Amino acid sequence: MTLHSHTPKNQDSSTKHVSRAAHFKMLDVILKRHQYRQDALIEILHQVQDLFGYLETDLLRYIAQCLRLPLSRVYGVATFYHLFSLAPRGTHRCVVCTGTACYVKGAAALLTTVEQFAHIHAGETTPDHCLSVSTTRCPGTCGLAPIVVFDDQVCGYQTPNSVRDRLKPLLKQT
Amino acid sequence: MAVKTLIIDDQLISALEEETLLQAAQAAGIHIPTLCYLEGISEVGACRLCLVEIAGSSKLHPACVTKVAEGMSVRTQSDRLQKYRRLIIEMLFAEGNHICAVCVANGHCELQQLAMDLGMDHVTLEYQFPNRLVDLSHDRFGMDHNRCVLCTRCIRVCDELEGAHIWDMAGRGTRSQVITDLNQPWGTSPTCTSCGKCVAACPTGAIFHQGSTVGEMVHERTRIEFIVNARQNHQWQF
Fold it and tell me: Which of B24, B45, B77 is the last residue of a domain?
């Protein structure tokens, strides 16, 4: 499992062609592949999020029923990990690293720039579902600090100006 | 069943092999403060109030999850432990919105009692005043997250004694909170049996009987003791 297994572009094009019913069939395949094992919950949630883009409440209820787990347990696990999202995410993602190295190199200024430019706070998605902004603690490329990840592409040595230039096309596309 | 002998606070004690330090101390009449521990349900060692010093170990050990061992020498009271315990209680007070004067559990609250026992006359930490909600959607009970100390007693009592597991912990860090089912209003929960064990298990006024006013909320621990006794020992004492 890679850190950025969720690829919005591919996922977006697939949701247009694959119906919801087909997605649920694939969900059943995932559950069957894990033999409905209760201890495979996290792995199943990962794959279901990759499939649907986010974990909506009905999906959590369905998974809980199939695995015979309490509803609250499934919800608790899904909200504990940052990588799981319970709300739809934007077509594009902008992740600002606020780890130690990036922070020292001015990540706070980058985050403020992104938030002001997109008019949303970290952890939110623009109303037109164009862009999601979030923060992370060190993807492990401190040599390039400060970094910002745009749609799974790690960009190093960022400045407020370069971030603005990167964001412009992302916000325009829809 | 092997018997172990150990020393707790200069007192020679014999305890069964499977007993914890807390059980051995309680049996000998030695008081160790606890908050997340509730007799009859599993121990999680979360609140860290029962930390004790064990000779030969630089670490502090939670008495509720540490098993007795032969020749153990344990101290349950010291200046260091007192300082840590008081700090833990101060952190709990600063973390939530605990206002005893308007609380249903005023006078019957374990958090309040611990603060008094530890001589907490003021809180040296900055109050966080988190924005937390109150859920009054259930017919008979209410949940005030402002008074919750996240001891997880309600979660364990519902899971282990009632078997419904409607409660669980969601989120992480300062956003952690106890939830019902899919974080929905308690009254809409399809799994809650309204048995009231969580109400009886709650150490503070977080889960309460609706209609009770300041100081009226008394936790019926005897109900939990009765069920535990009936379940585990097959004895129906009432």
Answer: B77
